């Protein structure tokens, strides 16, 4: 029998949006917190803490990731952890084991999965998971049952003794679920890998009102006060939900998608990017969504395409989630092999924005191993670094910063 030295857990997410038929923007006003927002009241600040950690690792660089994917990945991981490993994950997500919030966390994601599966009205939003396991290693029945019942995970028997075949099986699944947007998620497998867990989110909608490509022209984008590049700048004059947040020195413009999804574009005042980043939290997001009012704007927005690849095993320990990456890991809820720890957690992401809408994709991978009022039109130009988010009914799907379109 071959000796296993790795347990590999990979998770990913994808979102896509594009133009759709015109509807009343009033339907886009947020009706209230979603199910997941009610049952995990503090967990969403994790998204902004993670954003700050990623941004600090790559100063003056593009940032883009899916908080939904990473949060759900950690939630699934927590079901297989014990002792301090579980506590660190829950506290990292802003929750407490003492308050019985673990069950509520899983129930919240279960409700989210169910709600996403029932969405219509032209909005495509799917969320799911898949578990690939080697039949030569025993995965605990309780973990498998929870993955299926709470996270509706697909399960596959995979021969990791043939790494190339296993890699193809998993990458083909990812490719299919993300409509070809995430390819070759897994770059390398070894015969010592025994499990891969995939989590994905796919979001596709259309702008409520498209930009005309006839109004797209080359303009300067100020990457820094001293460096400019030429970008294709879209332009459309219309009424948008808009606000100025004096507290953290930024302007927010919202563009609605079909269904209850919205894109937020956040432009810091000159020299105030760090102040805005430091002020990001769930309260600020809720305030923006609830208090923005319509104003006629001449909106200038660059077409952009950015990607991100992040080794979260280097980031999460700085946020308190560290035991699972060390010899202190307790993953006894996944397998009866005592010497298992999480050695790698990868997140890959991509977003494209053009006249018709947005295409966004992200992937997270975790690798375990055995130890061995109507004023005149205001001109609003996003011609310097800005923040970008996609939300659906108060659920934050994607978050990023565009420094170089």
Describe this structure in words.
InterPro entries: Serpin_CS (IPR023795), Serpin_dom (IPR023796), Serpin_fam (IPR000215), Serpin_sf (IPR036186), Serpin_sf_1 (IPR042178), Serpin_sf_2 (IPR042185). Belongs to the serpin family. Keywords: Protease inhibitor, Serine protease inhibitor, Signal. By secondary structure, the protein is an alpha+beta fold. It starts with 5 loop residues before the first strand and ends with a strand. The protein has two domains: 6-206 and 305-370, 2-Layer Sandwich (Antithrombin, Chain I, domain 2), CATH 3.30.497.10; 213-302 and 375-402, Alpha-1-antitrypsin, domain 1. Helix content is 24%, strand content 36%. It contains nine helices and 16 strands. Strands 2, 6, 7, 8, 9, 10, 14, 15 and 16 form a nine-stranded mixed sheet that branches. A four-stranded antiparallel sheet has the order 1-13-12-11, covered by helices on one side. A hairpin with a 2-residue loop joins strand 6 and strand 7. The relative contact order is 0.24.
What are its keywords?
405 residues, alpha+beta, Antithrombin, Chain I, domain 2, Alpha-1-antitrypsin, domain 1, nine-stranded mixed sheet, four-stranded antiparallel sheet, 9 helices, 24% helix, disordered N terminus
- In N-to-C order, the SSE pattern is EHHEHHHEHEHEEEEEHHEEEEEEE
Helix/strand/pairing category: alpha+beta
Estimate the helix proportion, in percent: 10-25%
**Domain module count:** 2
Largest sheet: 9 strands, mixed
Total of helices: 9
- Provide the residue-averaged pLDDT: 81
Shape-level CATH architecture of the largest domain: 2-Layer Sandwich
- Label the overall shape: globular
CATH class of the largest domain: Alpha Beta
Proportion in β-strands: 35-45%
Low-pLDDT residue spans = 1-8, 13-43, 367-374
For the termini, the CA-CA separation is 51 Å
CATH superfamily of the largest domain: Antithrombin, subunit I, domain 2
Rg of Cα set: 21 Å
